[in-house]
Amino acid sequence: RVKMSVEEILMCPVKLGKNFCLYFDELECDALCKEKTLHRVLRNVNSQLLVVRPDLNLAAFENVTDQEIKCDKGMLFSIHCYKTTTPLAGMPVAFSVQVEDKSYYMCCERECGEMIIRFKEGEVPKEIPGESNIIFFKKTFTSCSSRAFKFEYSMERGMFLAFEVEGSLRKLILKKPSKDEVDETMKM
């Protein structure tokens, strides 16, 4: 029996020029195009949910009751999956969340030499022509935990979404993990 694949194969027209140089015709430019949107809550290793509070400019993992989840106040995320014309390390995604009838998207900004996560009012774009501070690469957390993921920031390779304990909060941050150990603070 032969099993056929339904995977699309991108073929590019080529031609040989003088001195047998290879030229590619009609190549697409590098771009990200929104493909689908998933709606999920984001849990950390302690089973706490990520909650966004734009009025306080804060995103932190908190203990949340089932009743509070149903209220949908900054806890149900839209994960916008993008397709791309270039092979990348992981699925490119962007995050947005609804809070009191307003939509906020997650982005990263450099402030005082440090990368800070922000939630800004607005929608994620359908197409992104180049690099963007809203794109993360979704990767499986480890080969043996296929339901847990980590998210690498596209503009600072090696930096991942994680949480950091600050007082009574577990704030959402960007973090460069140690190469020698599995960092559970990045597991979502």
From TrEMBL:
One of its GO terms (cellular component) is extracellular space. It comes from Sylvia borin. GO terms for molecular function: cytokine activity. It comes from the Eukaryota. Belongs to the IL-1 family. PANTHER family: INTERLEUKIN-1 FAMILY MEMBER, INTERLEUKIN-18. It is found in: Cytoplasm; Secreted. This is Interleukin-18. The lineage of its organism: Eukaryota, Metazoa, Chordata, Craniata, Vertebrata. Keywords: Cytokine, Cytoplasm, Secreted. Gene3D superfamilies: 2.80.10.50. Forms a ternary complex with ligand-binding receptor subunit IL18R1 and signaling receptor subunit IL18RAP at the plasma membrane. Mature IL18 first binds to IL18R1 forming a low affinity binary complex, which then interacts with IL18RAP to form a high affinity ternary complex that signals inside the cell. Interacts with cargo receptor TMED10; the interaction mediates the translocation from the cytoplasm into the ERGIC (endoplasmic reticulum-Golgi intermediate compartment) and thereby secretion.
